[in-house]
Write a structure and sequence with these properties.
about 75% helix, about 0% strand, globular
Length: about 350
């Protein structure tokens, strides 16, 4: 009965939060159109009010991409805009905006949904979660859904980093397949370990899980405030942005201002490792709470191994494969407004 009440409370909270987050994403998307002085704002506003903001942005990305790739000048054999042309830049910036919105969606909607889904499996009468670990499971659709959830969230971070560095001419591009794979594995493994840990803690005690979220969110907000971010032109929207970044920092680390973050990295993942170990120890001490519904030892082994491997990939990436290490910084071509133009993504999350 207690599990049912906890589940209902979590589901109601999650549903209400998702509605608010969807609205926030639409507000940010429309605000960016306003800041870009886009035409026909009335119908753009109507599409955002109908939750169609992301589709509107895909349309503009396709439009600018087509113009940059295929529109020819009067001679018919050369492009109107070169690599640094206005239309080419618009296409890149359009994809950067989409990647930012996808990152919002991944950590504000998809990640909590994934956590809730795993919690339901762990508290269900049928030990689906245990079967998925030990037998391959009869619930292959649920296994596939969870796997795709972890993969899509991790891929969104890789996609964002690619768009980030491509849109900033003074940043080395995120080039090469191997660095992207290592970065993906770092995010995937650390994120999976963390979400499984939180799910175990939620099964153990919903109140403790809420307290942990509140503690981490306050810590993330405090760090964001200390960085004095300037992503939004409006002070009210900047406050909302900082709140959202605080939520994202609960699940994964991002460099907020593009500065060196060696010490924050140590603190963040050191704290993550300490909390994970504390959760594992608490679950082993009060293992009777799980009532044999899941193979607790197997889940704990998965959590620990993924955390260790994730940190190893993190160290490998930042030691040998980070773009600032294996690339030579190019000189930004052009002078005046073209090279000094402030890109919106510059004030967002970096790595």
């Amino acid at each position: 009965m207690q599990n049912i009440k906890s589940f209902k409370a979590l589901w109601i909270f999650y549903w209400n939060a998702c509605v608010r987050f969807k609205v926030i994403v639409q507000i940010f998307s429309f605000t960016w159109f306003e800041e870009d002085n886009s035409e026909k704002l009335n119908w753009i506003f109507a599409l955002h009010a109908l939750q169609g903001g992301i589709f509107t942005r895909y349309w503009f990305a396709l439009k600018y991409g087509y113009q940059a790739a295929f529109k020819l000048n009067s001679s018919g054999d050369t492009l109107i805009d070169g690599p640094t042309g206005i239309i080419h830049k618009r296409a890149i910036d359009a994809m950067a905006d989409i990647s930012m919105l996808r990152l919002f969606k991944a950590f504000l909607e998809s990640t909590p949904q994934l956590l809730l889904q795993i919690y339901i499996l762990m508290t269900s009468d049928i030990s689906t979660f245990s079967q998925s670990l030990n037998e391959g499971g009869s619930s292959r659709e649920q296994d596939a859904s969870i796997t795709m959830g972890f993969s899509s969230i991790s891929c969104s971070t890789v996609d964002y980093q690619i768009a980030l560095r491509k849109s900033l001419p003074d940043r080395n591009e995120f080039a090469g397949t191997f660095p992207k794979i290592v970065y993906l594995l770092y995010k995937l493994l650390t994120l999976t370990s963390w979400i499984l840990s939180i799910a175990l803690l939620t099964v153990l005690s919903t109140k403790c899980s809420i307290v942990l979220f509140a503690f981490l969110w306050v810590g993330g907000i405090s760090w964001v405030l200390k960085q004095h971010t300037t992503f939004c032109k409006s002070k009210a929207k900047e406050i909302v942005y900082r709140i959202i970044v605080g939520i994202i920092l609960i699940f994964t680390f991002f460099n907020i201002k593009g500065e060196k973050t060696k010490i924050p990295h140590y603190v963040y993942y050191g704290t993550r490792a300490f909390i994970t170990i504390a959760i594992v120890c608490a679950c082993l001490f009060w293992k009777s709470v799980f009532n044999g519904k899941i193979h607790l030892l197997a889940v704990i082994i998965v959590i620990v191994l993924m955390l260790i491997l994730g940190i190893i990939f993190l160290i490998v990436y930042y030691t040998f494969l980070h773009p600032n290490i294996y690339c030579t910084q190019d000189v930004v071509d052009g002078t005046g407004s073209e090279s000094e133009e402030i890109c919106r993504i510059r004030g967002f999350l970096m790595h």
